[in-house]
Amino acid sequence: MNARWLDAELEGADTSPERRGKFKKKKLLGRRKLEDLVAEDPDQIADDTIRRLIDRGHITGIVAELKSGKEATAYVARGPRGSVLVKLYRELEARSFKNDAIYREGQWIGDVRAERAMQGRSRRGLEMLQGMWVSAEYAHLWTLWQAGLSVPEPLVGPSPFDYEATTPAVLMRLIGSEDQPAPRLSDVRLTPEEARSAWHQSVRGMADLLRLGYAHGDYSTYNLLWWENTVIIIDFPQLTTRQNPHFTQLLRRDAQSLVTSFRKHGIQSDAETTLREVQRLARERGPEPRVMLP
Ligand SMILES: Nc1ncnc2c1ncn2[C@@H]1O[C@H](COP(=O)(O)OP(=O)(O)OP(=O)(O)O)[C@@H](O)[C@H]1O
Ligand SMILES: [Mg+2]
Question: Can you name the CATH fold of 185-282?
Answer without folding.
Answer: Transferase(Phosphotransferase); domain 1 (1.10.510)
